Amino acid sequence: AALPERRRPGGGRPRYEVVRELGAEEVRWFYREDRKTWKPFIGYDSLRIELAYRALGPGGPAEPREGEAAAAVEPVCVRSGLYEVDVASAESYPVYWNQTEKIPVMRGQWFIDGTWQPLEEEESNLIEQEHLNRFKGQQLQESFDMEVSKPVDGKEAIHSLKLSRNHVDWHSVDEVYLYSDATTSKIARTVTQKLGFSKASSSGTRLHRGYVEEATLEDKPPQTSHIVFVVHGIGQKMDQGRIIKNTAMMRDTARKIEEKYFSNLATHVEFLPVEWRSKLTLDGDTVDSITPDKVRGLRDMLNSSAMDIMYYTSPLYRDELVKGLQQELNRLYTLFCSRNPEFEEKGGKVSIVSHSLGCVITYDIMTGWNPVRLYEQLLQKEEEELEDRWMSYEEQRLLEEFYITKQRLREIEERLHGLKASTISKPPVLKFKVENFFCMGSPLAVFLALRGIRPGNSGSQDHILPRTICNRLLNIFHPTDPVAYRLEPLILKHYSNISPVQIHWYNTANPLPYEHMKPSFLNPTKEPTSVTDSESVSTVPSPTTSPVMVRRHYGESITNIGKASILGAASIGKGLGGMLFSRFGRSSTTTPQTLETGKDGAEGDDKKAATVGTPPFPHSSSGFLEPTVELEHRIDFELREGLVESRYWSAVTSHTAYWSSLDIALFLLTFMYKHDQEDTDKANLDTI
Predict the structure, then answer these.
(1) Nearest to 542 by CA among 599, 602, 588, 493
(2) 501: closest CA among 365, 637, 675?
């Protein structure tokens, strides 16, 4: 789509103006990523790049000054401080992560009508030089705000310039057209394709001198008030740049959501990738050397992905993984603060988004957990059991001696630790407090369960992650992600019967704020794993199986289709097949009765619940939740399933589907902007 006619912040140009060299504000710099189209830098960035370019001297229009010719120009910080531009080499590179592929930058002077894409720099320079030689000092006859002038068919050219494969005609000072001399010409092909011309030779393309919008220093990005470290899980050895691409996807979707819902706030959230895996040596190539050659591709893939879990459970390499992530988090934070000194002064906040195994390592860094502590707890338990049983006099005497010796050993150890700090007893420390810890597709709950964490009777997050370490823990998962597990039942057991909170679709009008959403029951009956089970279950209608409030939104028909396919597949292969399908196929099953109720479904469910009832919770005498045992804050948040996606296919793809989700972007920003929203009178969470 064509951009609007040229506009200037201070109003239009005078009607008659003399042709002169382009001002720094009229030139626009562009960058190109992944070999796509050229994208313009914002005014603030472009103006500063142009000033650095002119300071170069011979390369730029400015003459070299005495003694300064050899002086290197400082790289220009661009794109909200994430990248720097080296004007001399015309390249851009990221500040916070390594990237093999350089990002080319280009100086735009002449632009194609309609698309406002810049002409290639070589051609642009030739046209600009010719234009100044021929027309410098002449007056422009056309008003700046006038519409594109009439077609020039039959109009005589007053000047012409021959280029390698095309030529440029000046029909007047301000009417310049590019004509292709060879239809194979690359520039003509791209230009004519974009503009829809079929005959490149007969149809000229209008060119504009100077960009559609003047660059100003006011056109700058908002200040960063919140940084988010994005931590990858397994598999980065296999594809080292993956977390950088994933974070870029998350950043782009967050920008769209910011523009749509949070544009009234003067700050923004910045996402930084944390690539902790590639710097680690671990076992060197020992595992590769013991890998058999048959199906080598598959084995290499497993070595590069699933092997990370084995490294993490190995006492030999676990510390290396923890230190790798901890050092990278601290390095990034220190670097960010050194480049943004006002961030800490203004109370900038830090959140972490971790994926898969990254959640477990991040959790262990924050809490300082290590297997040695667990081993010490087990030893203590054994000692207590010893004390409880009957012992002979000799055994008691030896045990007392053992305890005295052990106590003495502990004292010596402590004195030694005082002289030389131990790496084991000292938990890894982060240089910042974590505001929100978002887990995506996280197996953390399984790790915690295997470490002996059991549900308590307090609804506080402190049971698994103290608020002094991290203000808020949020566990996000796709319903069919096979790697993800729930955290809430580890705090209060009866939450295994309460459905996770459904994440709102990003385009939902006036959604209910998450803190106002009431808990709703999950289906208390288990998914059938065989045909006989399913028959016995289906004969008993269960009107209370669908949650009262949330799940109705994403089409109940999918659950019936899903159920039918689960039953069909389960009848083919019992055993492991049944286990898998019961794992992937969990969902709210809905009886035809509840579908028919339509709008009154929620009320109908309430009435039926009173008569049929639900299995009582351990902490509750009735089928309803007692307010005394509710969680202080909900932790488990579930993405809504699509209406057409296949359960089994999404089980394969869902573990990596979080990065580009607009629903997740809105969810993250809702929690990160929470305090800003409360402080701003204009914005109100209810209207998002």
Answers:
(1) 588
(2) 637
Residues 333-356: tens digit of each pLDDT: 999 999 999 999 999 999 999 999
**Which residues is 267 bridged to in the sheet?**
223
d(CA 642, CA 662): 13
The alpha carbon of 653 is separated from its chain's Cα centroid by a whole number of angstroms, namely: 17
Read out DSSP for 383-450?
HHHHHHS---HHHHHHHHHHHHHHHHHHHHHHHHHHHS--TTTS----SS-EEEEEEES--HHHHHHH
**CB-based contact 518:631 (threshold 8 Å):** no
When mean pLDDT is compared over 265-279, 464-478, 561-575, the highest value belongs to 464-478
Average pLDDT, the chain: 75
Q: Could you tell me the two tokens for 108?
A: 């735009």
pLDDT digits (tens, 9 = 90+) for 223-242: 899 999 999 987 766 666 78
**pTM as predicted:** 0.73
User: Rounded CA gap, 687 and 665, in Å?
Assistant: 17
pLDDT in tens, 613-622: 333 344 433 3
Residue type, position 490, single letter:
L
How many of the other CB atoms lie within 10 Å of CB of 285? 10
Among 215-224, 419-428, 677-686, top mean pLDDT goes to: 215-224
- Would you tell me the crossing angle of helices 576-584 and 557-572 to the nearest 10 degrees? 170
The span from the CA of 304 to the CA of 296, in Å, is 12
Query: What's the full length of the chain, in residues?
Result: 688
Catalytic residue positions, numbered: 356
Total Cβ atoms within 10 A of residue 377: 12
Phi, psi dihedrals of residue 642, rounded to the nearest 5°: -70, 160
* Eight-class DSSP state of 161: E
How many Å apart are CA 566 and CA 128, to the nearest integer? 68
Backbone angles phi, psi at 400, to 5 degrees: -60, -45
- Residue 574: what are its φ and ψ, rounded to 5°? -85, -165
Cite the beta strand spans of 198-263 per DSSP E. 205-209, 223-231
